[in-house]
Amino acid sequence: MAETDNHPTNFIRQIIEKDLAAGVHDTIKTRFPPEPNGFLHIGHAKSICLNFGIAADYQGTCNLRFDDTNPVKEDIAYVNAIKEDVNWLGFSWDGDVRYSSDYFEQLHGYALELINKGLAYVDFSSQDEMREMRGTLTQPGKNSPYRDTDVATNRREFEKMTAGEYAEGQCSLRAKIDMASPFMCLRDPVIYRVKFAHHHQTGDKWCVYPMYDFTHCISDAIEGITHSLCTLEFQDNRRLYDWVIENISIDCTPRQYEFSRLNLEYTVLSKRRLIQLVEEHHVDGWDDPRMPTIAGLRRRGYTPASVREFCKRIGVTKMDNMVEMSMLEACIRDDLNVAAPRAMAVLNPIKLVIENFPQGQVETLSAPNHPNDESMGKREIAFSRELWIEAEDFREAANKKFKRLVLGKEVRLRNAYVVKAERVEKDADGNVTVVYCQYDPETLGKDPSDGRKVKGVIHWVDATSGEEAEFRLYDRLFNVPNPAAEENFTDVINPDSLVVKKGIVEAGLNENPASGGWQFERTGYFCLDKTSTAALKVFNRTVGLRDTWAKIGD
Question: Which entry of 156, 195, 271, 273 is annotated as an active-site residue?
Fold first, then answer.
C-alpha cells in the first residue's frame, strides 16, 4: 500500500503492514511528542513527516503531545510556535492538543503503584553520590543505602515529597530495577524529582515532576499509541519503556521503534547549541533565516512542499549518516523553479542611459511571469531612457566567454531591446557608475533585421519606476561541514553567512506570491521578509540558482 501511494517503503512501514496483516492492530495511532523548550528544527520535520505521514497513509491518527515535564525550561511561546510549525508543514493532529501534564494525576498514581509493589523507593542520596554508585559501562553499580527501605516508609516519604516538605535535590523517587544491568538506563533510574516551578499548564499545583522516561511510555499507553517512533539515542531506553509498562496496571501495550536522527552538513541540530546561538546573539532569534529551525526555513522562503520532499528523499533507516546541505537546497530549487513567478532585481546597480531613447518617454512592455508556464500570465514593466543594470554585467573589455555587456558590443535586455555600449562615466576611484548606450528600436521581441547575432542577455530595472530595496543574502551558517565536531563550534561560524545589499527591484512586488517567493532572473530565489515595509522592501535570498558550494568543495 505504501509504495503504490508513491511513498517509498521503509522498515517502519514494513512493521506496520505486518502488524495490520496479522491483526495485531486494527488502527494505527502515532504521536509527535516535542518538548516545548525551543523551536523545532529540520530534524523534527523528519519526525513530523514520519509520524503524521504514516498515520495518514494507513488511515490512522496522530496526536500532538507536548512533553512538558520540565517547567523550568519550557514556555507557552514554544508551544504556540510548535503548533504553527506542524500546521505549516501541512499536518493536522487528532483531536485536541495533548500534554503530558494532562496525565500528572495518573502518573503520580502509577508511581505509587510501583512503590506499593516494592519497585520504587525514595532516595536521599545526592546527585554526586548517585553518579558514583551508578557504576560504568564496564563496572556494575552499587545499591543505594535507601534501596531496601520498606514500602510504608517509601509511600510516606513520597507523600511528603508531593506535599512540598523536601527541598529540590534533597531526594528523588527511583525505580528499583537492577544496579548490575549492562544497560545504564536500568540502574535504578530517577522517575520523580522535586522541583518548585510554575508550570505553563498546571500552574503551581505540583512540586514533584515525573522524568521523561517514566512519562513518555505511560502517556503513549494512555493514548492508545500503537507505534511509538523515536530516534536511535533512545534505543537502550526502550528497555526502561517496556519495564514501566510491564510493571503497572495499564491495558494498552505500545511498542517503541527507533530510526536514525537527521544530521545535516554546515549546521547544528542540537537544541543546546541552537539555544546558545540565540542567547549569545550569533543569530537574530530562533527564526533567523540562517537557522535550521522550521521557523527560520519558513522566513527564508522555504516551502512546506520542499521540506516534505526533503524528508521523503532522505528516507527512514537505522543508519546514522550526514546529509548534504545541497540536498535540502535542491528540494527548494526544484519547487520554486516550477512554482515561482519571475521578476527582475538589481543588487549592485550601475546606471544605463539609452541616449537615443526619447527624453521623458516611458514605454510599457510585457513580460511572462514564467518562461515555461503560460498559465501564470504576463506582467507589465516600464521601460525608459534610464535603467539600472548589475555592475558585474558590464566590462570595458572582455574575451568572447563574457556574454554580457562590453564597451563597443551589443547585448539584449531581458524582455526588451538590444543595446550597444558606447562610453562610460566613472567615479573618483575609477569605478564605472554610468554606461551610455544606443538601442535598436526594431529589436523588441525579435533579432536584428540585418541578421547580426546577439548572444548575451542581461536583466535590468527601470529607473523611473523601480523601487529601492534591501537584499539579505543568506548563506550557510558555518564554514565546515560538521561544526559540532569542533572544540568550539561558534569559532567556525561563516562571517559571510549574511551579506546585506541595497539595490533596486521592479515595482509591484508588494506581497509574497502563492509560491512563497520569486525567482529574480539570473540572481536567485527571494521572498519578502517580515520586516519589509512600504518605505523599504526587504528581500531574503532563499537559495541561489546554482550550488556554489559544490565548486568550493572540489
Answer: 271
